[in-house]
Amino acid sequence: MGTMPRDFLTRCAKALPKKVAFYDGDRASTWSELNQRANQFAAALQSLGVNKGDVVAVLAHEHTEVYEHFHACLKLGAPRVGINWRFSEKEVKYVVDDANVRVILVQQNCIELIQGLRETFSANGVLIIGFGGTHDLPLDYETLMSEQLNSSPDLPVLIEDDIVAISYTSGTTGSPKGAVLSQKALREAMVHTVLNIGLTSEDVWFAPTSSAWITFVLVSMNCVNGMPSVLPNGDFEPYRFLEFVNKYKVTSTIMVPLIMRRLIEIIEDEGITLPSLRLITFGSSPATPQLIRKADEVFNCGLAQLYGVTEATGGWITIMSPEDTKRGLAGEEHLLKSCGRPFLHFDIEIRDGDNNICAANTGGEIWLKSDTLMTKYLGLDEQTKEALQDGWLQTNDMGYLDDEGFLYLTDRKNNLIITGSANVFPSMVENVLDEHPQIKEVAVVGVPHPEWDEAVVAVIIPNDADAFNPDEIIAFSKTKMAKFEVPKALVLVDDLPKGLTGKVLKKDIQAMFKDGRLTVPWEIPAS
Fold it and tell me: Is 9 helix (H, G, I), strand (E, B) or coil?
């Protein structure tokens, strides 16, 4: 049978019974306590009729109960589903129906989101368990736990191909897609991510992200080496994050570029220091060279950019090690535009439109092979066939490998702007514009144009709207990029639409141009 992800917790509880597994605000849970409560909840689920293969979901903010739930699911072989509390009621129902969820653990402050669905869920046999405060749900988490105080679940036999989790996408381009993940994929993703990032049992790890999507792997991989993991005690809030880093002497963390920018502003404004930090990893969306240079100056610790995708159980696929980041900061500027070299449990190929492997420094689509790859998209046979071919994952990400093995992301395939006969990757234009001191944030999109099919448009949050000089930005652009890449319009906004992970939602921006919320100096052709 071999090692399964559920075995990691049992081993931590035996080897490190009194060591802290999770810090959650003023609460601290040891490995033995976490294991005991996961056993209790697993036994409670079995008493409710949950068996191996039955899907158990969680709808909550970031608290210890989310990971008690996760480990209980691991023990039972019950696929775990995270439901995004930012989803609409329609999206929540879609996920519950699509995954055939049997039980949902719901935090008290998320109950309102499912209020209109309770009768439907009840009629369909979906059990709802409440926790975290007073509620009117028929089942209560702590009551169920108390009834199983000295109980342990009957552990079913598991094999590597059994489903361990279904991780849903954000649903920004239609209904959410459920990536079906195996026991083997999760085990390999956990072990190799800890190994390749270089985390040890002496680290204190803080991943202030949401367990509703694939980063539940990042938060819970502390069971691989027994290091404590800090939870954001709800959701990420920058001042609380900084407080917790110092309170718990966090050594290593992960963040998205959006969060990094905000933390830098606060640290500079208020003179905060973070002496315990030795490593910041970052990813989800590419960080610009300017931001990396600023982060090095402000945080004064190791910096490592990661690249991962949900379909590889998060990944993580590449790392720009702190040593390689230093090379970039010391003068090898091109390295600051890379997301690093592949982890050694991945094969990476760059392929052209005819599926031929591209030479070094030649752009194409990124293909992956690894034991961490998803099994399929749930109920989506055609999309699965498109994504998984002969053991390889077609990522839809565009990029190239240089002759040292560094991977450079150019953009998502569906973000490509075709203006006239030229191809423009928005991220390349964004990297240039981000260097200008008048620009705080920028997103580049293609907007329909009567002459060029699409035109390059930069949507900008300025540092000072009153002092913003568009002519200066265009002149700057012309010195840094090809003529066809220079934006045909600059549009100022107060904010950019972003998803759960901090990624800018470019489809939402394009929709704003189509419905007139944002405008350009030409008439947009009817689609």
Answer: helix
